[in-house]
Write a structure and sequence with these properties.
Helix content is 0%, strand content 48%. With 73 residues, it is mostly beta strands. The strands form two sheets. Strands 1-4 form a two-stranded antiparallel ribbon. It has a two-stranded antiparallel ribbon with strand order 2-3.
């Protein structure tokens, strides 16, 4: 299913990040969107947000990134 967002609404992506390594670390997790139908040439993916996550070894964290559709309009 491809979710839809009203033109003036906000989309929120929720995902879990897990540190599978043996040391604590920080990572920047990017969120990209694709616009399959467009009357103009657009890149296949566009960066709309990101989250910086710091985790201890073996730890997980649920992360949310919100963005407005106009970011890729």
């Amino acid at each position: 299913m491809t979710p839809t967002v009203p033109r003036h609404g906000t989309a929120t992506v929720t995902f879990t990040v897990t540190n599978t390594g043996s040391r604590a670390g920080t990572d920047i997790v990017p969120v990209y969107v694709a616009q399959p139908v467009s009357s103009v040439v657009v890149p296949p993916q566009r960066l709309v947000g990101f989250a910086r996550v710091t985790l201890d070894p073996g730890a997980s964290k649920v992360v949310q990134v919100s963005f407005r559709p106009r970011r890729w309009a």
